[in-house]
Design goal:
The protein is α/β, with parallel strands linked by helices and 283 residues long. 37% of the residues lie in helices and 19% in strands. It contains nine helices and twelve strands. It has helices at residues 15-26, 57-64, 79-86, 122-137, 163-180, 201-212, 227-238, 253-256, 266-281, and strands spanning 31-35, 70-74, 98-101, 106-109, 114-117, 145-148, 153-156, 184-187, 191-195, 216-221, 243-248, 261-263. The strands form two sheets. The chain has an eight-stranded mixed beta sheet, with helices on both faces. It has a four-stranded antiparallel beta sheet with strand order 6-7-9-8, covered by helices on one side. A hairpin with a 4-residue loop joins β6 and β7.
Length: 283
């Protein structure tokens, strides 16, 4: 295995991960590279509207994309927002980039510059309308912040006096509110997102890998919402498709424990992608 690696590419800690990396290096033209956005390509910031891709992310992806089958950004954000915050449009080398927004309910293709989307779930509008009064009635308004996400709505507790306590106190009430409208809650890092069921990053990744007829897959994520994509990679491995799992940061132990390569955050994710691109150019 040592012949496949150089010092810039950390060796995966699992045998499945080592097999995945070997397959990517040997058959890059069959590889799908899929990446979360917030916390993986972009730093987590107090105001999600201020999130932007790491300065090295687009250059690294532009070097990597032409050497692999496909690159996809898989995010809970609206696809158009991720494209704007990522700076992905009109970039040489990223002509075939795909952004799967709202956990796959939306798809933006760089080749056309357009977004295709499923019909919105009516429960989202109902929850959006109820949330301010709902939070006020349970005494949880102070320090919380509602993020409008189009096909979903999220409650952030990062600005609360005790962010983790506020997060825990809101989990059950918001889950009950969501259930009344046929929706589910996706917990994240100090955020509770209310969205339609039957859509997650695992389903989006599975469908994309199948459409691409991929022979190998790399996935990088950082949060609870990425666990479904992690499970998809593990399922693909059991079906004979090698895979490599990268975890950005250690804030979500459930994800970090299942990763093949643990990276400290977006800066190291970008370094990994750039190193992979350079390594593939030498193959």
């Amino acid at each position: 295995m040592g012949s496949h690696l150089d010092h810039a590419l950390p060796e995966p800690v699992t045998s499945a991960g080592r097999e995945g990396l070997a397959a990517i290096l040997e058959r890059p033209q069959e590889t799908v590279v899929a990446l979360d956005f917030d916390g993986t390509l972009a730093e987590i910031v107090p105001d999600p509207e201020q999130a932007r891709a790491h300065p090295g992310a687009v250059p690294a992806l532009a070097e990597l994309a032409p050497q692999v089958a496909s690159v996809a950004v898989v995010t809970g954000r609206p696809a158009g927002v991720a494209v704007r915050y990522g700076g992905f449009a009109g970039v040489p080398g990223l002509e075939h980039l795909v952004v799967l927004g709202h956990y796959g309910a939306e798809r933006w293709d760089a080749v056309s510059g357009t977004v295709h989307a499923l019909a919105p779930h009516p429960g989202v509008a109902a929850v959006r309308a109820e949330l301010p009064g709902f939070l006020d009635a349970i005494g949880a308004w102070q320090g919380t912040w509602i993020e409008e996400k189009g096909r979903a709505v999220a409650v952030h507790t990062r600005r609360a006096e005790d962010p983790q306590a506020a997060f825990e106190a809101l989990r059950e009430p918001i889950a009950e509110l969501a259930a009344r409208h046929g929706l589910i809650v996706e917990p994240g890092r100090l955020v509770l997102e209310v969205r339609p069921p039957g859509i997650d990053k695992g389903i989006a990744l599975s469908e994309f890998v199948r459409d691409q007829q991929a022979g190998a897959v790399l996935y990088a994520g950082d949060d609870l919402g990425d666990l479904a994509a992690c499970a998809t990679v593990e399922k693909l491995r059991s079906d004979g498709v090698p895979g490599l799992l990268l975890c950005s940061g250690t804030e979500v132990p459930e994800l970090a424990e299942r990763a093949d390569v643990l990276l400290s955050g977006p800066a190291e994710v970008v370094e990994f992608l750039a190193a992979l691109a350079k390594r593939l150019k030498r193959v």
